[in-house]
Structure formats: C-alpha cells, structure tokens
Amino acid sequence: MSSQAFNPYLPAGEYIPDAEPYVFGDRVYIYGSHDRFGAPMFCVNDYVTWSAPVGDLSDWRYEGVIYRKNQDPKNRLGLRLLFAPDVTVGPDGRYYLYYAFDFMGLMGVAVADHPAGPFEFHGHVHYPDGTLWGRRKGDSFPFDPGVLVDDDNRVYLYSGFYTPVPAIATGGRELGFDGGYVLELEADMVTIKTPEKLLFPKSGPGSFAGHEFFEASSMRKYDDRYYFVYSSRLNHELCYAVSDRPTEGFEFGGTLVSIGDVGLEGHTDEKTASNYTGNTHGGMLRIGDDFYTFYHRQTNRSSYARQACAEKLEATRDERGVWRFAQAEVTSCGLNGGPLRGKGIYEACIACNLWSADGAGRYDGSNPKKRLAAHPYFTQDRRDVNPAAAGATPVAKQYIANMRDGAVAGFKYFDGLDQVSSISVTVRTHKGDGARGPAQGVMRVSLDPDGGRVIAEIPVRAGESAAGEAWGAHGAPADPSAVGDRPSALYFTYRGEGSMDFQSFELN
Which percentage of the chain shows pLDDT scores above 70? Predict the structure, then answer.
C-alpha cells in the first residue's frame, strides 16, 4: 500500500455506520446509513458513499450524496430517517439501493446506472396486488435489508428485527418480530414473488443459542455457498451462518468481530470488554482469497455517532470447502495489511481499546452520558460539516476526552518499537472536582494492557496558561528493551489528578 490505513478508515468527522462493502469494477464501495455528530438520533443525514481502489484500501475517496431522504414520495418533508441500506446489481445490470425508513415498516428501493449514483426512487416493495409489504397484518417488520441477486438472476431480500416496535410507529399493524426473514422478488426488484419465510428464528430450534438473530441482515455468496452476516442479540458482535441454499439450511459459523473483543481471551463478557460497546452492523468483503469484516464502533458516549471500521479475517476452508472465519480482534491498523510503523505521529482517535479504571460500558440504554460521566470517550472539536449540505468532505479534529486516573487507551499493532528512543504525547489537562490547581500526573506507556512492561513514563503538567485552554506536548525517553521481535501493542495509562484530553502521540 502507498500509505498506512487506520481504524476508523474514513476521515475524522465522518460517521457512516452499518457499512456494506462491495467490489464494483476496480474499486471497493461502501454503503451505510449516515450519522451526524451530536445528533439526538441515528441516521439523520442523507446517504453518501466512499470508495477506494481494490489494491489500496488506505485511499478512500468521497463520492458525494447518492440519495436524499426526501426523494422518496412518502417522505417529501424529509422527516423520516434513512436506516441501514444494502445495494446489489440487478438482472438488468443497474444498481439497486434498498432502505427502510426508521420504524415506519416499509421498504424503499432506488436505482442508478453507476455504483456512486445518483440514485433515483424506483418503488416500494409490494405484493402483486400493489399492497405494500409491511401493510398486511401478519407481515414481518421490514427492516435492515440485505439483498442478493443469485447467479441464476433470482432475487432474494432478507430482513428482520428482534424487538417489537410500538404499534403507534407501525400504524397499529401487528407485524412479525420473530427473527430474520427471507422472501423472493420478481426481476423488477420490487414485487414480491414468494411469501416471506422465517429463516433465522430468535428463539427455539435453529436459533443459534447464545448468538440469536437481532438485526443487520447481510448476505454474500462465495464458491457456491451462502454466507449470512448478522448482529446477534448480544448486539456488540457480528456473526455468520452458512448454507448451500439461499432460503434454508443455515448453520451457525461463529463470531466475526465484537467491538469490545468479547469472546476473545481475557474478555469473557461486556464487563471485561476492551472497548465501549453498543450496536454494530456491517458486512463481509472478499478480494481474491482475502476476507474482511466491516463494522462500526461507538463514540461520544452515544449510540448516535458511529464510525466505520474494518478488520482482515483469518479464513480457512474445511474438508467440505466451506470458508471458516476466526473472530477478528479489533485493531488500530484495520485495513493496513499489517502492523503500523513504529515511528511518526499518530492520532489518539485510532485507539482500538479504551476503558476507565472501572472498565468500559455500554453507550445505549438509559442516559449514558450521565452513567459514564467518569469514563474516557472519543469526541471531536467541532460540529459536523454535513456533506449533504456543504458538498464537501467533513473536517474535524478527533481526540480522546476525559481520561482520568487509571484510564487506558490501547493501540494495536506496531512494528519496529525496539528502535524507539523517545515518546511524546499531545494533551490538555483539566482540573479535577474540588482541585485547587491544574491537573498533573504521568502518562505511562506499556506493552501490556495491565500496565506491565513499561517503556516510558511521561510527566504531564499544565503550563502557565489555565488548564484546559491549550494543547501541549510532553515527552520522555523510551526504554524499548522489553520489546520482542513480534508486532506489539501500546497502552497509554493516565495516572494523576483531574482529567486529560489525549490528541496524539509521537514515536521517535
């Protein structure tokens, strides 16, 4: 690759959760919903897309707005929100975008001649008599579409949601919330051809006990087998299931990724998570025999500012030729193709691990900003520049805020740390509750998450200006003697008074 890739892989200030990746031509395109930093709800922006060359997943290009909320005739005022979409190439060679309007209970379709749009409204998924799907009593709840056009040009639409939505939101209709469903569409991409079928029950036989379906349907076909990716009821993980047929016979495959590394060694549950959890949603990408999982992380002590991340998957084929995937660890290097270089300046917002002295927590549920007031979090220095309104790539400076005594930010992985002679951090400090003077303490840099194998201790003190008013750089010599010959993680632990915001670090 020509340059390094990081997680999140899009520029600071861009919030695209639910990203579905596809290779069209010689580029990878992502299609997701579109959060706005500081917004009180999910997905308030219009759809945009980004793309990167297949051979360089560090070089993402903003393709602009591809579909606006008010293009759908049932949303002319733009009051309904565009939730997680999916895209496929239809039998006619055009690109079809499927979307659900928040909790309205209907599925819209738009079409374009190019993967970057612009997309135009095509119709709503409906029965042959014109009745909209989701308008009949007993229909399942149309939500989080996943669409697949098979090799024989048959069109399958996957959908589903775990938690019943209040009847007032669905117009009083009694809809199905029993898990994940599938139905077949006609070649026009909007007319239902076969009745919907419960494919992934959320309870009972076939429900993938412990990892039951919650939402986020996503389907891929590789080497004549079907791989279904979904978010489980645990909500912080993406799982997969495999079958030889698109509408039955799926077997649970395992977890692809958890945004808190839950399920990996040392992280048995959310109480021991490596990062703050909440919902995640995404898809799978294959380039040659390399596979990747795309997902999103939570920021700003909120469920409403989610950022796009990705990891390479460890893939093997079993005796039947089925691809099997090990759970990926969340990292800072994501799509880089290997560890980051152990020199240079790195933004703190690429931390893949973050927790307080009391561990991490969930960003959904009741009042997370109050409940997690003493915890560190990712944030940014200004409001969004909304690409839909400004026509430009968003620009913002991200950092980790509110690192108090015992807070840890972890970065994985680096090569060449055995050559580092000094480390500096750019931070700003804030007074603690009842403190008389500026915050001060030490930033301890170690190779182990528990603070073991310390390689630097950096004194952090406010300057002559009032604490919290300005960023300042602080450095110290490094002792890399504990670094081995394998890629290493770096953990920055703050020990001291008050709180600290962490902007970046430099390895010299």
Answer: 94
* Confidence tier at 384 by pLDDT (50, 70, 90): confident
What is 344-507's CATH superfamily?
A: Galactose-binding domain-like (2.60.120.260)
20-338 and 344-507 in the same fold: no
Global pTM? 0.95
Type of residue numbered 469 = E
Alpha-helical (H) ranges within 362-468 are: 368-371, 387-390
> For 441-495, how does the pLDDT look when each residue is reduced to its tens digit (9 = 90+)?
999 999 999 999 999 999 997 653 344 468 999 999 999 999 988 999 999 999 9
Q: Give domain 20-338's CATH number out of 2.170.130.10, 1.10.3720.10, 3.90.220.20, 2.115.10.20.
A: 2.115.10.20
Residue with tokens 């990724």: 257
Cis peptide before 91, with omega less than 30 degrees from 0?
A: no
Q: Which helix (H) or strand (E) holds 316?
A: strand 315-317
Q: 152, exposed or middle or buried, with CB in 10 Å at 0-12, 13-18, 19+? A: exposed
- Which positions are annotated as active-site residues? 18, 215
Number of other CB atoms surrounding residue 37 within 10 Å: 23
Q: Is 178 left (phi over 0), alpha (psi -120 to 50) or beta?
A: alpha
In one letter, which amino acid is 68?
R
Region for residue 190 given its phi and psi (left: phi exceeds 0; alpha: psi -120 to 50; beta: otherwise): alpha
Q: Domain limits of the chain?
A: 20-338, 344-507
Q: What is the pLDDT of residues 120-155, one digit of tens each?
A: 999 999 999 999 999 998 899 999 999 999 999 999
